[in-house]
Design goal:
The chain is of the alpha/beta class. It contains 15 helices and seven strands. A seven-stranded mixed sheet has the order 3-2-1-4-5-6-7, with helices on both faces.
Length: about 325
């Protein structure tokens, strides 16, 4: 999709003129224009001044469905996609870019519960984030190593281990744009894209989350476009401190997007008086030790997470079965 020449500067002023008129006056650009623009940003062909202007303008305006779709077209064309491992389950993709500040980050528990059932689980994200406990840090405490190449990922899939790929290894050009946050002080569209991208060449189940309510309908609009079915399905939920694992204390609503249809899988749960036993602190060593206890059956897996696992297993198996049937017919 990205056919641009990296050495040729890309003038972005005409796009800034459209999206940079403030929240009320700004206009959205087309999917094709968004794809061309983001491809140039990934290539490093947009000047630093224009890059800052674009990122801040889009931050104020908010992305449209067409814009996020075009950005994602360019993003997914910028890195090598992973082949799906053979088996009865389609891969489950878990983005992890937030970590946790207050609650224990139980994303690794979700990944390990799925992987031990034979599901290929890909976690991609950041390895560290000041002031937060990342999934990567907890996985390291649990003895899981990172995959820096597609070959290493294949080896970990074969061992029924969840695969963690740092974003720098999976999509290095996107990682560069993520790092712009350290310069500008605010997030940009890439932080949304990494949470919804599909890194596999074949169908996969994406677990996606949003933090701000206005993103719910925009992402729902994207996931109900005609582009989704060939890429697999998606679960969309309000993030647990930004992570795509169900809240252990009170499960949130989970929407399933399948064949352009939106179905509520899990309804938002009311607060409960009796909380499940959880890690005493949210640091990585305590969380990892508690997860090991849960995997051994010494403490119960929180009911919202157990329910999320069951839905993932069912839909992942359905996706793989449909994919196998389609391949048999094609053969």
């Amino acid at each position: 999709m990205n056919t641009s020449t990296p050495s040729v500067p890309f003038p972005a002023a005409r796009f800034i003129k459209e999206i940079g008129r403030g929240k009320k006056g700004a206009r959205s650009i087309s999917r094709d224009d968004a794809c061309q623009l983001y491809a140039a940003m990934l290539d490093g062909r947009v000047s630093d001044l224009e890059m800052g202007g674009l990122m801040l303008a889009m931050r104020i305006k908010g992305e449209s469905v067409d814009e996020i779709a075009g950005f994602l077209d360019a993003a997914e064309a910028s890195f090598d996609q992973l082949p799906a491992p053979a088996g009865q389950y389609a891969p489950v993709v878990i983005p992890s870019y937030n970590g946790s500040r207050q609650m224990a980050n139980l994303t690794p528990l979700l990944a390990l519960l799925l992987a031990r059932q034979g599901v290929p689980v890909l976690i991609h994200g950041v390895t560290s984030d000041p002031g937060r406990v990342t999934t990567a840090e907890i996985l390291q405490m649990l003895g899981c190593s990172f995959s820096q190449t597609l070959q290493q990922a294949d080896a970990h899939f074969a061992q029924h281990q969840p695969v963690f790929m740092p974003i720098e290894a999976l999509a290095p050009r996107m990682a560069r744009l993520l790092d712009m946050r350290r310069i500008l002080g605010v997030r940009n569209s890439t932080h949304t894209l990494v949470k919804i991208m599909q890194p596999f060449a074949g169908p996969a189940l994406r677990l996606a989350s949003y933090t701000h309510p206005e993103y719910l309908e925009m992402l729902a609009g994207y996931f109900t476009t005609a582009a989704l079915p060939a890429r697999g399905d998606a679960f969309l939920m309000r993030g647990t401190e930004g992570e795509t694992v169900a809240n252990a204390k009170r499960g949130q609503q989970i929407e399933w997007f399948h064949q352009n249809q939106r179905t509520t899988l899990v309804h938002k749960q009311a607060p409960v008086d009796d909380l499940p036993p959880l890690p005493l602190t949210a640091d990585a060593p305590a969380t990892a030790a508690w997860i090991q206890s849960a995997l051994r059956g010494e403490v119960p897996v929180p009911a919202p997470i157990a329910e999320q696992v069951e839905h993932c297993l069912r839909v992942s198996k359905l996706l793989q079965a449909k994919h196998d049937i389609a391949n048999d017919r094609g053969g």
